[in-house]
Amino acid sequence: MTKLFEAAGNLARKQQRRAASRARWAVKAGEEGVKDGVHATRKAGEGIRDGAVNAVKELVRSVRRPWRARRRRKAQVEEQLGYHRLEWQVEREIEEIVGRGRPIVLGPWLSEVGFETLYWVPFLHWVKAAHRLEPDRLVAVSRGGVAGWYQGLATRYVEIWNHIDPAEFARRNAERGTTKQYERSPLDADLLQAVGRELGTTDFDVLHPSLMYRLFTLYWSGQRAMGFLDAHTRYTRLQAPAFVDRGLLPERYLAVKFYAARSLPDTPEIRAALRGLVAGLAERLPIVLLDTGLVLGDDHADYAFPAGATVVSARSWMTPQNNLGVQTQIVAGAEGFVGTCGSIAWLAPRLGVDTSALFIDPKWLHAHLPVGMRAFHKLGGAGRFAAADLRALDPRLSGVSLPAGDGDRA
Known about the structure:
Layout: H1 2-99, E1 104-106, H2 113-131, E2 138-142, E3 156-159, H3 166-175, H4 186-199, E4 205-207, H5 209-220, H6 226-231, E5 254-257, H7 268-282, E6 287-289, E7 311-313, H8 323-332, E8 336-340, E9 355-359, H9 369-378, E10 385-389, H10 390-393
Parallel strand pairs: 1-2, 1-4, 2-3, 5-6, 5-8, 6-7, 8-9, 9-10
């Protein structure tokens, strides 16, 4: 009997535990249901909220999109208007200078030879033609005996080296902080005073290179196409004056001028390649080297090549006052010109001389090469002009390291 009561007690307790377990499960299920309900409610609320926010955002975008487009277009128009204003301002300044009726000094030119031959002189020809100026009214101011570069432009020429020592010029020109003449400097002012003393009057106006630099920056910066340059330049043929006795030169020869530039940097590999090139040319025709041996404030140093039976250096014939004039004469009498792409290479075709211009880093020439090639192609009687990468002539130069950055040197 006792065992029966124990069994009954155990069964009752077991049933109690099952009942308690079911009760706990029911409570837990209820709690989970409540949680799920709360979560579902929250998700639904978030969905409604997100939908409302996204709808507002899309509405704002739809309103702001055309506003932003109009703002961008307005900025573009204002930017272009600024460029037009610059062009109009420069042309208005030129008109004011011309309209005063006084003699006009062209310069003084203090910058690179390449920019003088490729841009400055053709720009002046445009100014003269556009405003029907007489050469008797114009006075060119430059250096190195380049009066011949201004033939047909100005009847008078003032030589800078007659008024300032080259070392002093180099020091003061460096103080300007840039080779470009975007504004007048104290050096400009002093040279213009010297021009006044030579002319015997200061009653003249000045057509300064800064006008050209400001105007042509629109092309160099990519804001204007090449047609803009066409509209503001006039390229002409040149006749070289005589500085050197023609009997000192070979009967037939090639003129050669290689100088170190960022487009053709001075490295051992490039020096060796150029020496080989000059030696190869000398086997075909005598070579006249246009190295000056002068320090005139230009950052371009001439490459040195050994003289020989068929290689002649012209440096003994040059002084600061005549060096560019001598080079012009030698190039004009040559069968062809070979040299660094820049400087005299922009001049030689205008003398009717076929020209081979070499470089190794074209990024410094990207704005200038098309100008020269187009101008010389259009100019009647000009020499043929060809530019080539020196690495195409000597594959060993393909690994030469080049200076970084963008540039604007001619």
